[in-house]
Amino acid sequence: SRTPASLDVSEIVARRAYIRFVIDSTRTTNIQKIMAVGGTDSAAHAKAPGANAPPPAAEPSAPTRIGIVRVVDGSMNFADYSLLPNFATGIQEMNGTIIGLNSAQLTHAEVSVDGRVDRYAPVEIRGQINPLSEQAYTDIAMKFHSIELTTFTPYFGKFAGYKIDKGKLSLDLHYKLNKKFLEAENNIVIDQLTLGEKVDGPDVTSLPVRLAIALLRDSKGVIDLDLPVKGSLDDPEFSVFPIVVKVLVNLLTKAVTAPFKLLGSLLGGNDEDLSYVQFAPGVDTLDTAEQTKLASLAKALTERPALRLDVRGLASDSLDRSAMAASTLLRLVRARGGRGPVLDEADNGRILRLFSERFGADPDSLLPPERTAAADAPTRETRAAEIVRLARMRLIASLQPGDDELLALARRRAVDVKDRLVVRSGIEEGRIFLLDFQKGAKEADGAVQMPLSLDAR
Prior knowledge:
The chain has 457 residues and is an alpha+beta fold. Helices cover 32% and strands 34% of the residues. The chain is built from twelve helices and 16 strands. The chain has helices at 30-37, 40-44, 153-160, 209-216, 240-257, 259-266, 288-303, 319-334, 348-359, 369-373, 380-398, 403-424; strands at residues 7-15, 18-23, 64-80, 87-102, 109-117, 121-129, 137-148, 162-178, 181-198, 222-226, 229-232, 276-279, 307-315, 432-439, 442-444, 447-456. The strands form two sheets. Strands 1, 2, 3, 4, 5, 6, 7, 8, 9, 10 and 11 form an eleven-stranded mixed sheet that branches. Strands 12, 13, 14, 15 and 16 form a five-stranded mixed sheet that branches. α4 (209-216) crosses α5 (240-257). It is elongated. The model is unreliable at 38-58 (pLDDT under 50).
């Protein structure tokens, strides 16, 4: 028969229309099977989700206009039997209109459809489409409110390794397709996500899922994520759902590999590295700058109540031993007189007397005789200063603390951090864990670094 010059329909009523989409155990969809019935050409171009084979060229169509499509009590069901346990959900009570369908390229039909997921969670679909045009155009916003997360346990268990015990999911999706370029904005809000029983499987991620959730969940138990996607449909590597999953996995990976950077972002892009604190050599309390930094960490911990902080007290074999010995020397010299937090020239006599008493030797013996007789022998003042310096070095070497004292310093540092977080910042004591104390701290710019680490309940 001849193609009509045009097709003009004023109204179509789709009453109790039903769409069923099924993925079977071989990951073949019912749509693929239907297309395959049409012959090998159709089957060759059938696409599973994420495939990108080009469709066959469309036959030229007649100009078409449909004034309004009314959807009355429609429904759609989706099932995935490739998962164990199987996953199924549906949208019911679909009602609304599509106004102004037209094959003319510059026209856009207005879509307004509402429904419910599993009869309770509201769904709103709003926007513009032009499916009859040769140049595809879509600008659709879809909102799903308070879907029970337990519905998605099969998917979550397959990839995250846990069943979902509790939670609700809201989606705010905006897809804009102009010709063959797609821009998608995916806002995902997860409320009160609670993990249940752990499950195993070949696709389960190796990421610490509990820590990732604790990092992303705010003080009200809400995870709010924006996952934008854009790309050309002509790109064989571009497929929306796998890219969304990849963006989400990258976000989770970043959260658990750089958790303190994420915490810093909670403070409005704070550039401080909250993953460690620094102590001056031999000192067991934080200076003003480090106290301010710790207060920033406390603020971030308050925003993420499921996080726990591990604090390992550390000390440096070199910096701390020398600083502690110098502190002991100052105390011994001050016991003999003088004032001030540092040794100066007024203390030279006390240092020399302490040397004589401690080693039973004349301090002059510290300067080799050959240097005294040499042509370039130092002046009396220079020689005296050199003797004091050598005596001081010998005393400090003899006053080096043992391992027990060094570990005690490491412990006091950890306790100082915990006290400031718990007593001064109000962090729950049960969230701060003191780990075993150790030597071998990292040194940076003359300071001793003490790293911090995060865990989740």
